[in-house]
Amino acid sequence: MKNIYLLLLIFSFAFLPFAAIAQAEKTDQTETTKNGKIPVTQRDYENTEVAMADTFREDGKIYVVVAVLATIFAGIVVFLVVTESKLKKLEDLVYSERKSKETTHKVL
């Protein structure tokens, strides 16, 4: 179990630079109004590019990103399934002990 948490922690730290870069690009390009809102312009409606995704596609790294995300998702799903099965076994054990105690009390 500790290995799964360690892997999730490592992968989460691996994606922090990408989030920082994306946030820096976003804040550099935006202008805010007096009330703090970002105005929508015609350029926003005409924009069909996602710079980071295009760069990853050109370099062939988009497949690495998808593979890492799929691995993380699969790890979380496996963790939840294993935890659920352990919980089910514990519930069955508790309910069987409770039934055995109830039948013992009825006999007495």
What does the secondary structure layout of this molecule look like, with pairings?
Layout: H1 2-29, H2 42-46, H3 51-59, H4 62-107
The gist of it:
The two termini are 44 Å apart. This protein has 4 helices and no strands. The protein has 108 residues and is an all-alpha fold.
Provide a count of the helices.
4
Q: Please indicate the percent range of residues in DSSP E strands (runs of 2 or more).
A: under 5%
C-alpha-based Rg, rounded: 26 Å
Q: Determine the structural class based on helices, strands and strand pairing.
A: mainly alpha
The shape is: elongated
Sequence of secondary-structure elements: HHHH
Could you report the average pLDDT, rounded to the nearest whole number?
77
* Largest sheet descriptor: none
Helix content percent band = over 70%
Give the number of domains: 1
- Cα separation of the termini: 44 Å
Q: Which residues form runs of ≥5 with pLDDT under 50? A: none
Q: Count the strands?
A: 0
Report on the structure:
The structure is a single chain. The protein has 108 residues and is an all-alpha fold. It has one domain (2-107). It is built from 4 helices and no strands. The two termini are 44 Å apart.
Keywords for this structure?
108 residues, mainly alpha, 4 helices, elongated
